[in-house]
Design brief:
The protein is mainly alpha-helical. It has one domain. The protein is built from six helices and six strands. The strands form three sheets. Strands 1-2 form a two-stranded antiparallel ribbon. It has a two-stranded antiparallel ribbon with strand order 3-4. Helix 3 packs across helix 4 and helix 3 packs parallel to helix 5. The longest helix has 27 residues. It is globular and about 65 Å long. The chain binds zinc ion. Zinc ion binds next to helix 6.
Length: 197
């Protein structure tokens, strides 16, 4: 079965990126037309909850709309950086700039404070923007501070999801073997059969 041509509802998205910043990137599939699982702010709220980021309810539609724009902009930057990383190219300067700005803004949502054994980050806000702030900080750490990051992109048709390959021999090619892996094998199998007919 082909992956549906409509966006996958957030509740049904599998989180296979190995890092929630990549799972955020994978809420958009760059097909034609693009399929965006974050169709509204409630989708982002549900996504954040599934990703383990607590968000308090809000009652301001204006700030909700701005929050959706911000997380989509962060997602665009993450996708551009991930795509260039996979391709072994330098990242587009505007994406680096966007992530810098987003990571700098994240300080409004966190403070360093004591924790057992030393010091750590504490979230000081719980609104939607603070979820985006947290993701921006984590994305900067993932891309800029992680050495030897085995970032890959699924080879499945109409997929292109990003993931961290943690397989021992670095041979992972699919977002999931059960999904794109099997489908691609089935497609090859059908093509072989047709060729032999
Ligand atoms: Zn895939």
């Amino acid at each position: 079965m082909e992956r549906a041509r409509t966006p996958t509802p957030v509740e049904e998205l599998t989180q296979i990126g190995g890092h929630r910043c990549l799972d955020l990137a994978n809420t958009l599939v760059a097909a034609e037309p693009p399929r965006d699982s974050l169709t509204g702010i409630e989708d982002f709220r549900a996504w954040a909850s599934r990703a383990g980021i607590a968000v308090e309810p809000s009652s301001d539609p204006g700030s909700d709309a701005a929050a959706l724009r911000r997380v989509r902009a962060l997602r665009d930057a993450i996708r551009a950086i991930a795509a260039s990383t996979v391709a072994g190219r330098p990242c587009p300067p505007e994406a680096a700039e966007a992530l810098t700005e987003a990571a700098a803004r994240s300080f409004r949502s966190r403070r360093l404070g004591p924790k057992p054994g030393g010091i750590g980050w504490h979230r000081v806000r719980r609104d939607l923007d603070s979820a985006t702030d947290l993701l921006a900080m984590e994305a900067a750490a993932l891309f800029a501070d992680a050495d030897g990051l085995r970032l890959k992109r699924c080879s499945g048709a109409h997929c292109g999801w990003f993931f961290i390959d943690r397989s021992r021999n670095g041979s992972r090619r699919w977002c999931s073997m059960a999904d794109c892996g099997n489908r691609t094998k089935a497609r090859r199998h059908r093509a072989r059969q047709r060729a032999e007919e």
